[in-house]
UniProtKB/TrEMBL annotation:
GO terms for molecular function: ATP binding. SMART domains: AAA. Residues 7-250 form the ABC transporter domain. It comes from the Bacteria. This is Peptide/nickel transport system ATP-binding protein. PANTHER family: D,D-DIPEPTIDE TRANSPORT ATP-BINDING PROTEIN DDPF-RELATED, TRANSPORT ATP-BINDING PROTEIN. It comes from Subtercola frigoramans. The keyword Nucleotide-binding applies. Pfam families: ABC_tran, oligo_HPY. The keyword Nucleotide-binding applies.
Length: 281
């Protein structure tokens, strides 16, 4: 099988803003691959660089070293125009279903825009939009309604439908269920899985929530301070994490029993010290 996406030794450095501000290296030699039809979960605490990696793959972050190969093409440093052409291959679903959809456009307009922009005629585009709504379990009459008429979970379904409009091979999902309540999260996660089984799309699934990542991912990579500190089979990384930082992340996940939670706090303290040592080493 040909690797779909191959990120090697990737570095991203944000320019410093304002007088005397130093540039900030957010990714320090990140390597990760994604195979066709696969979900790679990316976990790590806030600020570890997860979104930056997703944005670099989408051409939205300043790549300062290393490479991003999509199939046999280097895409880390493409021109804007070449990037636009790639938008039928790589898509994105963002965290916030409230701000990611244009409030002035109907769902039909939102979904048909990328399709007609590719030269497809209006009639065909309309039938494709109906098919997309069906794929994400929204009713056909959604086509004439505005995003504000839908719940958060339904809006995220609209955002997923928009990402699917051009039949991409990879979708970067950046915290796509974090803004939703728990039962809605579960239904949207199952939708991601169903879509993958049907279309063979691959996901880079970014989340700070280990339970979410465990549910959807074939493989999991753990980020810490701009580096991937552990990666492997989803069950292995989540059930038997090897790196102290990964163990720490798992301990940070809340457990229902207060006594166990207290014990975890003590263990966390010890792990925190050894994780800092391991990353420096
Ligand atoms: N445009 C930018 N300019 C400068 N620094 C940035 C920029 N975007 C992100 N950073 C910094 O890069 C680091 C990584 O941020 P990033 O958003 O990738 O982390 P994250 O793991 O996705 O965190 P979160 O879960 O909070 O979104 C952070 O220290 C952040 O402050």
């Amino acid at each position: 099988m040909t690797t779909l996406l191959d990120v090697r030794d990737l570095e991203v450095t944000y320019p410093g803003k304002g007088v005397g501000k130093k540039p900030f290296q957010a990714l320090k030699g990140v390597s990760l691959d994604i195979q066709p039809g696969e979900t790679v979960g990316l976990v790590g605490e806030s600020g570890s660089g997860k979104t930056t990696l997703g944005r670099a793959i989408l051409g939205l972050a300043p790549v300062t070293g290393g490479s991003i190969r999509y199939g046999d093409r280097e895409i880390g440093t493409l021109s804007r125009r070449a990037r636009r052409e790639l938008s039928s291959e790589i898509q994105v679903v963002f965290q916030d279903p409230y701000s990611s959809l244009n409030p002035a456009m109907t769902v039909g307009q939102i979904l048909s825009e990328p399709i007609t922009a590719r030269g497809v005629d209006t009639k065909q585009a309309k039938s494709r939009v109906q098919d997309l709504l069906d794929q994400v379990n929204l009713p056909p009459d959604a086509i004439n309604r505005l995003p504000r008429e839908f719940s958060g979970g339904q809006r995220q379904r609209i955002a997923i439908a928009r990402a699917l409009a051009l039949e991409p091979r990879l979708i970067v999902c950046d915290e796509p269920v974090s803004a939703l309540d728990l039962s809605t999260q579960a239904r949207v996660l199952d939708l991601f899985i169903e879509i993958q089984e049907r279309t063979g799309v691959a996901y880079l699934f970014i989340s700070h929530d280990l339970a979410v990542v465990r549910h959807v991912s074939h493989r999991v990579a753990v980020m810490y301070h701009g580096e991937i500190v552990e990666s492997g089979d989803g069950d292995q990384v989540t059930a038997r994490p090897e790196h102290p930082y990964t163990q720490l992340l798992f301990m940070a996940a809340p457990v229902p029993d207060p006594a166990r939670q207290a014990l975890r706090r003590v263990e966390r303290h010890h792990l925190l010290e050894s994780a800092a040592g391991a990353v420096k080493a």
